[in-house]
Each structure stands twice: as structure tokens, then as C-alpha cells.
Amino acid sequence: MCLQVNEIKDVMLTYLCAMDLKPFYEKVEDAIQTLGIEPEMTRCDQEGQWVLQRGEAEIYLDVWQPQNHNQWEYFKEDEPAAIYQVVAPVCFIPENPAQLTQFMEELLYINHHMFYGSFTVNMQEKVAAIGYKRLLEGANRVEMIEPIESIGYYAENLSNFLSEKYGLKKIEKN
């Protein structure tokens, strides 16, 4: 009986905590428009997702509300939160273990000097990307634009630098 009650409670909390993300979508599209880009041209098939271009770099924007919480989130799991994320794939990672270690150390060094972003590595897909994430509550237009510009700048420049230095394959546009 307790398990059923807890399952119902979880479903109710998910339903009650769901928030309307449309105002946040409008904030993102306002930021895109401010950059001189038509938001309609950047929308993906799934609502809350956009793709922008900066040179050869693709910049992915996402707005969502987490359905499942984990120990790394610092906000209260019983309160709804909208998340804003900006991600740009940079390059594939080295196959050679010794070169991979040097590459990872360089990413950590670069992270220390970056604003509005940091490297993340997807070992399964063997891709290094630069990402930024924040809670959307209280964000203004500038706080939406700066990460887009920053991530785009770093992705465009570091893709060339890291690919040449380590002989890596660049990420191709979709």
C-alpha cells in the first residue's frame, strides 16, 4: 500500500510542479532576435530547442524543466525550475591514451580561463563540447546573450586550435 501511495505522490508532484516554459522560450527568442537572427530560422522540431551558427560552429540552445532530480542540483527538487543550456560541440577526442591525458589536462587549463562556459567530454560519443547551464528564473536578455556569444567564440576558435594541435577530426555540421 505504501508503495502505491508514494507512486501517486510522485506523479502528483510531477504534475503540480510542471511549469509553463513558454515565457522562457520567448526570452530565448528575444535574445536570438537581439543577435540579429530570426528565431524562426533557428527553431528545432522539438519545442524549447534552437540551433545557431557561428562560422563552422553549431550552438545548441535548450530550455527545459528536469523531470528527475539528482544529487548535483542545488535547487529544491519540490520546486519547479526552468533550465537554460547553451552547448557547442568542438572536436572529437584523441584515441591515443597518452595524448588523451594531455588533451584532458589542456581542457582543464582552458576551463580556468573561460567565461560563460566550460568544457565537458562525452566519452561515449568521444566528443569534447563547451557548455553553459543556469536556472532561468530572473535571467535578463544580457544573461541569455552573453553565453551564446561566449560559447560560439570559444567553439569556433578552440575547434581549430585543438584539432590542429592534436590532429583531431572536427565536428561536421548537421
Order of helices and strands: HHEEEHEEH
User: Number of DSSP helices?
Assistant: 4
Overall shape: it is globular
Number of domains: 1
Content-based structural category: alpha+beta
CATH fold assignment = Yope Regulator, Chain: A
Give the termini distance in whole angstroms: 50 Å
Query: Could you tell me the strand content as a percent range?
Result: 15-25%
Q: What is the C-level CATH assignment?
A: Alpha Beta
What is the compact description of this entry?
This protein is an alpha+beta fold and 174 residues long. It has a single domain (20-166), classed as Yope Regulator, Chain: A (2-Layer Sandwich), CATH 3.30.1460.10.
Written overview of the protein:
This protein has a single domain (20-166), classed as Yope Regulator, Chain: A. The chain has 4 helices and 5 strands. It has helices spanning 2-17, 22-34, 97-113, 141-166, and strands spanning 49-54, 57-64, 83-92, 118-122, 127-135. The protein has a 5-stranded antiparallel β-sheet. A hairpin with a 4-residue loop joins strand 4 and strand 5. The radius of gyration is 19 Å and the shape is globular. 21% of the residues are buried.
Supply the key terms.
single chain, 174 residues, alpha+beta, five-stranded antiparallel beta sheet
Write the layout of secondary structure elements.
Layout: H1 2-17, H2 22-34, E1 49-54, E2 57-64, E3 83-92, H3 97-113, E4 118-122, E5 127-135, H4 141-166
Helix pairs in contact: 2-4
